[in-house]
Amino acid sequence: MPSCLRLGVKRLAEYLGDNGSCAWATWRGMRGPYERLPSGFDSLGWTLEHNALVHSCAAELREHGYVVYRERQNAFGIEIQTFGDVTLPTPVCLVGQPDLIAIRADDAQIVDCKTGRPSSTHRIQGMLYQLLVPCNKRAPYVGRINGATLVGRIAYKGYPDVALPARTEAITPALLEAVRDAIRVLGRTREPVPEPSRDACRFCDVADCSVRFREQLPLGAEELALV
Ligand code: SF4
Q: pTM for the full model?
């Protein structure tokens, strides 16, 4: 068992959002390497497209007078062992890396760039960044962020951007409760039950899952005769 269970903010947002993420797949992913199914994902194409979008957003923010921090400069890991009434057997480390953090006087923005279609998962990921970035005490800008109005934005390629409310409004009791419940399920030693579904399983790379969702084959002539 690792000393800390790593949970990516993107993965947590998928668990909380509308992608139908399976608790067992997330739980398994936090506990070290596993055998993965091959993926047809074009990672090189995605990297080029995503980087171009990040560069263009950063340039636009700089033109408007912001000091901009990019990707790896923004990487964080927030270790949690107690959250509300939840005490975990092993700490969970929430890790993430917002694409851009931009600061101008007392105005700060966290921008995440997406090349796919808009979804509620992206908004949740942005709100999780708003929750967690100010807790990264080692970041050089944390003092300025904590004294600023911190807003979020999801910048899309080919769709209008989505503005998130200021941190004080984005961090609702419902969001905190959802995060606490997720950490309670994902941080405990007992395995959650797998939740196979068409949407979750077709994007899941866990190779050793015996309950993966399979499309029903069309009924054959013999079965049709019985209908
Ligand atoms: S294949 Fe489906 S049920 Fe199995 S771990 Fe992945 S999402 Fe869960």
A: 0.89
